[in-house]
Amino acid sequence: MVDTTTVYQGAMQSAGLQLLAQREILDGLAVEIHKKFALSFACLVFVLFGPPIALRFPRGGVGVTIGVSIVVFGLYYVCLMGGEALADKGRLPAYVAMWIANVIFALAGIALLWRVESTTDTSRGGGLRDWWADRKVRRQLERESRTSRPAVTP
After folding, report:
1. pLDDT at 128 over 70
2. Taking CA 64 as the corner, what is the angle to CA 117 and CA 52, rounded to the nearest 5 degrees?
3. Is the pTM of this model over 0.85?
């Protein structure tokens, strides 16, 4: 006589293994989808690195600039492939694994741009910080002028 409990346990284990295999396939597909979008967005992230690298090594020539750019790209690629491996194994969600490199490098690029902006002078006036400070002052003056106007009565 066949024990039905054993049969049901075997069927449940088999179904669980099938679900696990299908989840791995879906995780792999999600990783590929997020990787395509993350790599497309990486172009914008690398644009943030261009000016600071070029301005950091003005006398180093093209060779130094290209060398630093290759190192930055290499680090980005290692981060991206590490994230992909973690997502394929199910250790990280696909969106986190594929986008974390972009977030890190975008923040670093913005910080480098901010630093370059604060250390260089231009002959055309101030940079972003001056514009932002002027904008705040202009808005405050607009608010004050609105509140100090006398009411118009017909």
Report:
1. no
2. 15
3. no
